[in-house]
User: Which sequence fits this backbone?
């Protein structure tokens, strides 16, 4: 096992390690793009219809309920009718 | 070069071909998820705020302008103020 690689290790032939790393990095970029930038845990599944920035529903609901009612990306105020679940798939 | 593999071919050791395929399939799933399901070309970058289904702006604009004003996913009618650019990232 390669101890240098911090992530999930798979048995890979060292000759193809570069390709493996390139593909893995691409996957990580997609995962990051699809994750809520507030919690970095849930997937993006909700939108603020004042500014159309995308987060997860849980985070928007919590922020609404705790009166942090500004978009974390652009500071636009939002109300109870301004956050909605979306279906990216 | 492996002629059986239809896609972009990279020099991969056959022993790690399975891992390579698994990673590649995952990348393809992400690409599909992020693509507009109408044109399958542009990335998802617009939303219908009647039903919160996601497409590309170009497709929604064309459909609006050619009077095909129903969501392709759920048939909800939409008007000129019901489609908006979004920022998934
Ligand atoms: Zn979140
Ligand atoms: Zn915003
Ligand atoms: Zn499209
Ligand atoms: Zn719809």
Assistant:
């Amino acid at each position: 096992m390669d101890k240098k690689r911090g992530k999930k290790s798979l048995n890979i032939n060292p000759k193809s390690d570069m390709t493996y790393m390139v593909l893995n990095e691409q996957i990580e970029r997609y995962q990051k793009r699809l994750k809520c930038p507030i919690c970095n845990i849930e997937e993006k599944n909700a939108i603020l219809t004042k500014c159309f920035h995308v987060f997860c529903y849980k985070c928007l609901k919590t922020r609404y309920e705790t009166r942090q009612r500004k978009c974390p990306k652009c500071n636009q105020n939002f109300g109870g009718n301004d956050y909605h679940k979306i279906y990216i798939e």
Q: What stands out?
A: Residues 16 and 61 of chain A are 45 Å apart (CA to CA). DSSP finds two helices and three strands in chain A. The domain at 46-85 of chain A is CATH 3.30.40.10 (Herpes Virus-1). Helices of chain A lie at 17-34, 57-65.
